[in-house]
Structure prediction request, 241 residues.
Amino acid sequence: MRQELLSLPKTLAEDVAKNLVMVAKMLDEDPEQAYGYSRVALRLASRVPGVREAAGFAAYAVGKYGEALAEFRAARRMTGSVELWPVMADCERGLGRPEKALAMAGEPEVQKLDRAGQVEMRLVAAGARRDMGQADAAVVTLQSPELASNSVQPWTARLRYAYADALLEVGREDEAREWFAKALEADQGGTTDASDRLAELDGVEFTDVLEGADDEDDEPVDGDDAAKGADAPREGRPEQG
Prediction:
């Protein structure tokens, strides 16, 4: 990215860089704000591939799939890279065209992806199968050497989770529970809710620890104690206004 910005005048490059930094910073915590920064960067430097890519991911994060796809295509034309192929296919899913996403999974570009990219493409293809009501085919799509491997890679938790979810959809609950557990083992960064899914399958219910305290607060009180507590917000509960 820095190399790409060198083609711009210094002051312009600095302004674009500041906006791109904010896109990266806000993408997960405030996608709408990240999208706003990406539009500024795009206005300033639409001929920079990295700007088009960042704008694509920002649009993708807020569900503007047509816009995201257009930006990803532009970035790909500029660079010739295939690394955006899986997310482009997922945009097709977002646009309600799972058949197109599935067709992309069979294109020669997939063979040019690195291992991580091929796993992403497999996840997208399985999602497209499910979109099309082909749940059993989604299970088969996810079966791969990467799924069978005991090695933990950045994609491992998500791949195992997707497989568990697909198994659950076809009624293979015991196997699904096993794979949610495996996903949880690999999920060092907490990228999935595998623990919640396991608890749900095990029938575990979580109790609000403040519930008992609220019940105690609701008990009648007399005299001055009632007067003192009547207008005060309860601890741990937002004041209603």
Q: What stands out?
A: DSSP finds 15 helices and no strands in the chain. The radius of gyration is 24 Å.
